[in-house]
Design brief:
The chain is α+β, with helices and mostly antiparallel strands and 139 residues long. The protein contains three helices and eight strands, in the order ββββαββββαα. The structure holds 8-OXO-2'-deoxyguanosine-5'-triphosphate. The site of 8-OXO-2'-deoxyguanosine-5'-triphosphate has 18 residues, from strand 1, strand 4 and strand 7. It comes from Ligilactobacillus salitolerans.
Length: 139
Amino acid sequence: MKPQQNIVAAVLLSGDQILTGQRQANRVGGGKYEFPGGKIEAGESARQALKREIYEELGDEVVLGPQLLVPADYEYSYAQIHIEFFYGRLQSQNLKHVAHTEFRWGTPQELAGLDWLPASRPVLDLLMQQDLRKIEFDE
Ligand SMILES: Nc1nc2c([nH]c(=O)n2[C@H]2C[C@H](O)[C@@H](COP(=O)(O)OP(=O)(O)OP(=O)(O)O)O2)c(=O)[nH]1
């Protein structure tokens, strides 16, 4: 049986733009574009894990908003993943290159042509139909 991995990732907003990172070549899915995030560790909630991952990988604090309603299960050759996505806003812009070769800001339409990890593709389809300036944050 393939390992089951629980993943969480952030759609980071700035106006009508979102942030994507290109995965470093030595990681699974190297070279593909993704939303910053990673594996949920034992004892963590999805939101706790996401804040930790963003801090570890980008060096930035994040405020999280609502969860996106998109399909959560995807099977790769190496693992079965369950992935949850949350909107977020960065509190700073360090954007360290710990896990990514580059970052790009753009509208979903501008970024849709990149080579995305397949489990993240439905997120772009959803984002292209949203008015991103109207996403509300409670925190
Ligand atoms: N972060 C992130 N991972 C994604 C996205 N889409 C997608 O299919 N994935 C997959 C790729 C990987 O199989 C998995 C994330 O695992 P990972 O290895 O990057 O997690 P991690 O940051 O905790 O890495 P590590 O320390 O264990 O190396 O989820 C996405 O948009 N963002």
